[in-house]
Each structure stands twice: as structure tokens, then as C-alpha cells.
Amino acid sequence: MSNSRPTPNPGSSAMNKIKNILTAGTAGVTSILTLYPIETLKTRIQMKSESGTGKISPLGLMKEMYKAEGIKTFYMGLGAAIMRQFLFASLRIGIFYNFIDYVKQKNNATSATLLQTIAGSLASGGFAILTVMPFDVVFVRMQAENSLPVEQRRGYTSLLNGLSRISKEEGVKTLWKGVLPAVARAMALNFGMLVPYEKCKALLAPYLGPVSYTHLRAHETRHDLVCRLLLEKKKKKKKTKKKKNK
Asked: Is this structure's pTM higher than 0.70?
């Protein structure tokens, strides 16, 4: 019997990469659809805090928004948020795991090295926010639209309308205003969540077997939790299929 490693199937490898990206993006969209009203409320609280209106009650502000503007106000800018979250989650998490899979396969290893994990987390986080920054600008403005005086409201009708008008009226550079702090935050976010998780998983695997995505999630945001659960489900299905084939 030959002990040589099986030759990877290029088609299967490409499909796995696509699945990683789509799974991450789907998870991001699921989370934003569920929690968007809270995101809108958070933005309003931040704006009121900056204006020095004193102590703010989240429940009181929610009632005030609903009475004055209706239920639709909690979903202002949802289209831009969906596009932003799909791209951001796809790139930030999908690219990271594609990179980790690549280095493990290349080095015939069960896990990536610490340096490789750090590099992957920083690169994917920075690249992701650079890509979605214009969507961030539009959706934050749309979220805050109804809190502005009538004469200051921009009246963006959609994501594309917002991108087009900002480019024409304020210049393309405005779409990346504040990008350096955003990149630093995204890189730190990826590093802080993904690197400890991957290294702890590798350290515990010899003692506990494959570490479930639900075991080490105390550091995760709501977006990452959904993504990890979907990825876990996908990997369990793969293992079941392999056992049946044997």
C-alpha cells in the first residue's frame, strides 16, 4: 500500500475557498438583519451624546424614535449595511481561513504557525475595511439621517445614490475619510479574535480532540459567532461524508 499523500483536487480546493467566503458573508448578513435596529439605536445614542444632551435612556430614545418617525427609522440604510457586512465578513473571515487552509496544505501541517496566523489576521482585516469603507460612510449617514435638522438632511435614496452623490459633491476622498483609524481597528479586531482562538484550538486539540467552534467564543462578536457556527456545521458534514466513504 502506498504511503504517499493524496493529490489535492484543484476543483474541490477552489470550491472550499468559495464556500469559506460565502459562509462568512451569509453569516454577516444574517447578523445585521437580526440586530440592525439596535445598531441604529446605538448610532443615535452616540450622536446625542456628542451633542451634550445629558443622560440618555436607550428605551426612552427608542420610544421617542418610534413615535416621531415610525418603525422604518430603525431600518434606515439597511441596504448599505447589508452590502457592507457581506463584503466585510467575507473578506475579513473568509480570506483569513482560506489563507490558513493554504499554509496548512502547503506545509502538510495540522495548524499554521503563530507568525502565519498573525500575518493572515492583520492582512485580511486591513484589506476588508479598505474595501468596505465607502459603504461604511454611506450607511452611517443614512442611519443618522432622521436625527439631523431638515435643512441638513442629505436624502440619499440608496447605497449607489449615496456613493455617487458623495463622489460628485464632496470628492472621492471623502469615501475613505478616517480610513487609517478604521484600518488599525479592523486589524486589531482580527488579531485579537482570530489569533488567540486558532492557537488555543491548536494547543487543546491533542487533549480534547477537534475543538468545537462553540468552545472558545467568549472573545467573539455576534457576527463571528454566527459565522463560526455555520463553518462548524459545514466541517461536520464533511467529516460525516468521509466516514461513510470509508
From this structure: no
